[in-house]
Structure formats: C-alpha cells, structure tokens
C-alpha cells in the first residue's frame, strides 16, 4: 500500500491563511456544475442504508476521490480532477454523507463514512486507488487502515493534522464553538466560524456570502462536525496508526510522500519528520510556487503517474502530459 501523503503540518495555527487564494480560485473559477456527456451518475447504498450518490468517468483502474470540508462532487477542483484522471483511470467522485445529493443517517460515526467508501469500492470492482484532500485525506487514511488491500494506494494532499501545541489549542477552541453553534441550529454562523478558523479575511468572506454556493455551504454546515471527528481528538499526525497498517506488500511498497503547495520550510520539515517515524516510508517535499489550488492538480498528476508506472512497469515511466506538466 502506498501512502502518498501531502502532510502540510500547520506550524503554529492549524489551517493557514495561505488558503485564501485557494478558496477564491476554487469558488470563482474551478466551480463547475456542467454534467459532460459520458459522465455516469449513480448511487450505492451504505451498510446503514444511507444512499451515496457518485459520478463515474474514464476507463482503467478505479480511483475514489474524497472531499474535504464543505466540498461536494461538483465543487472545488473535483470536476477538473475527474477530467484529468479520467484519461487513465475510472474515477469515482462522490458526495460524502450529509452533502450534495447523498443522504445522511444518524448518529454520525467515522466508521459510517468508511463504510460509504467501502460501498463505492465494491461498486468499482473490489479494489481502488484513493485520493483525499484536506479532511478527506484524513478520512482516506481511516478507510485505508480499515479496508486493507481493498485500497491499492492512498494519496493524501494537505491533510490538516497538526503536531504544534498552540495549533492544537486553537483547534480545540474551534471544535468547542462549532458544537455550540450547530446545536443551536446556527448553520451560517458555523460556516463563518470555519472560514475564520482558516483565517480568511473578512472582505473575502463577505464576497463568498454573495455567491450561490453559500447556500450549499450552509446546508452542509453540520458536516463540519464530521470533519472534526475524522481528525481525531487531538488532530495530531497519526504516525503510529499509519505504521500499524498491514497493507504493505511486495507490490505496493509502503511510502509516505510529502507534498504541500507553498508550505513553509518548517512545514516541509515537520512532514518529513513524520515520514521518518513511519515504517518503510520515504519522504519528498517541494514547493510548486503556485499555491494550493494548482498544487492539487500537480500533486495528483505526479501521484497518478507513479500509480500508472506500478500498474504497468513494462511500459516505462508514465508522462505527466495533460496534467499541467510533461
């Protein structure tokens, strides 16, 4: 099993204001509601009866895309990732429970979301690669640990784990306030709290509130608590748990690849340190100089080329052409 983990460990404050450009770009440019010809929308039923809606595109080995906070299968970089990966893989792009067109059955537990992913993998033929972004990366790790060899490889981009004590205290305060707001039914305030936690400046938040997407954010606000649960009580990098994985074998070598947008040197160093503590892990890091939104595409391009090389080693190194590099 491969851990291609984009651990951008936040140095002092958890998620950083570096995501401002990322959010604006995703909200205003990347957002894509168009259902292109050949895109198959389907549904699976999870173990607890929850209906999980997904799109399928492409041909080849299966890849499941897992969203971060407030994302759905048609927002952020998801449509573009589907198009790019669809040249080489069959892409399964789904709405996490409580979002978009998928259902939601209480009470919530992280294992329920793992079961959702398992249902998708079964629909995909029994095994799949997996890519998770932000809290979706943390959920992907939970699924990989639980599902073993059903997950061929896991790519994690900017998982918001944090080993910094100050950052953890800030996260604890955020989670406590979030629980109060959601208990009172104050969904918009919960979204505002989350964006404040990301340190997005007030003028940009006000601009977001004028977009049609804002109503979708409010509808998905309860799932912010789900993301908090996925990251665990402390939000620390789960090195020890990842090291306990029994999924590594002769074909899929255990690997921890460090990648993170324009991460500061300390962030890259912390992530490399996490890799050094993980059994059989390798670490690499680079700054792509273009920010998180474009970095997502570059990261997936590099990871997908690695996956293709492992699927067909006799064909030689896979090109990144068509993915922004090559």
Radius of gyration: 18 Å
| Fraction in beta strands | 5-15%
**How would you name the CATH homologous superfamily?**
Alpha/Beta hydrolase fold, catalytic domain
Low-confidence stretches: 1-22, 24-37, 246-271, 277-295, 313-326
What distance separates the N and C termini? Answer: 26 Å
H/I helix tally = 12
Structural class based on helices, strands and sheet pairing: alpha/beta
Q: What is the approximate shape?
A: globular
Order of helices and strands: EHEEEHEHEHEHHHHHHHH
Percentage of residues assigned to helices: 40-55%
CATH class: Alpha Beta
Give the rounded overall mean pLDDT.
74
Walk across the major sheet and give the strand order: 1-7-6-4-5-3-2
What is the count of structural domains?
A: 1
List the helices and strands and how they pair.
Blueprint: E1 2-6, H1 19-30, E2 40-45, E3 51-58, E4 61-66, H2 78-85, E5 89-94, H3 110-123, E6 128-133, H4 135-147, E7 151-157, H5 165-183, H6 187-197, H7 202-209, H8 213-220, H9 223-230, H10 239-243, H11 265-276, H12 291-311
Parallel strand pairs: 1-7, 4-5, 4-6, 6-7
Antiparallel strand pairs: 2-3, 3-5
Describe the fold and architecture.
The protein has 326 residues and is an alpha/beta fold. It has a single domain (2-315), classed as Alpha/Beta hydrolase fold, catalytic domain (Rossmann fold, 3-Layer(aba) Sandwich). The chain has helices at 19-30, 78-85, 110-123, 135-147, 165-183, 187-197, 202-209, 213-220, 223-230, 239-243, 265-276, 291-311; strands at residues 2-6, 40-45, 51-58, 61-66, 89-94, 128-133, 151-157. Strands 1-7-6-4-5-3-2 form a 7-stranded mixed beta sheet, sandwiched between helices. Helix 4 (135-147) links the parallel strand 6 (128-133) and strand 7. The longest helix is centred in the C-terminal third of the chain and has 21 residues, at 291-311. The model is unreliable at 1-22, 24-37, 246-271, 277-295 and 313-326 (pLDDT under 50). Residues 63-232 form the AB hydrolase-1 domain. This is Alpha/beta fold hydrolase.
């Amino acid at each position: 099993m491969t851990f291609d983990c984009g651990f951008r460990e936040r140095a002092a404050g958890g998620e950083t204001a570096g995501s401002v450009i990322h959010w604006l770009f995703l909200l205003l440019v990347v957002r894509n509601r168009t259902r292109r010809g050949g895109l198959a929308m389907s549904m699976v039923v999870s173990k607890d009866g929850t209906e999980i809606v997904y799109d399928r595109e492409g041909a080849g080995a299966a890849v499941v895309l897992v969203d971060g906070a407030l994302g759905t299968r048609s927002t952020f970089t998801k449509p573009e990732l589907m198009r790019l990966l669809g040249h080489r893989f069959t892409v399964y792009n789904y709405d996490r429970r409580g979002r978009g067109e998928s259902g939601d059955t209480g009470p919530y537990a992280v294992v329920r979301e793992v079961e959702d992913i398992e249902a998708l993998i079964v629909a995909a033929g029994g095994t799949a690669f997996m890519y998770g972004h932000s809290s979706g990366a943390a959920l992907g790790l939970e699924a990989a640990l639980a599902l073993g060899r059903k997950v061929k490889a896991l790519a994690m981009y900017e998982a918001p784990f944090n080993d910094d004590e100050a950052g953890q205290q800030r996260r604890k305060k955020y989670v406590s306030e979030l629980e109060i707001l959601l208990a009172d039914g104050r969904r918009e305030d919960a979204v505002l709290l989350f964006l404040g936690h990301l340190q997005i400046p007030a003028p940009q938040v006000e601009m977001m509130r004028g977009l049609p997407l804002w109503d979708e954010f409010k509808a998905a606000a309860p799932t912010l608590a789900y993301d908090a649960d996925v990251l665990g009580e402390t939000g620390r990098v789960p090195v020890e748990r990842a090291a306990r994985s029994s999924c590594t074998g002769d074909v899929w070598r255990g690997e921890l690849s460090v990648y993170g947008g324009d991460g500061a040197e300390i962030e890259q160093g912390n992530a490399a340190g996490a890799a050094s503590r993980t059994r059989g892990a390798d670490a690499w890091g680079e700054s792509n100089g273009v920010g998180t939104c474009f970095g997502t595409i570059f990261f997936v391009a590099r990871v997908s080329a690695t996956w293709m090389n492992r699927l067909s080693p006799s064909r030689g190194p896979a090109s990144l052409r068509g993915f922004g590099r090559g």
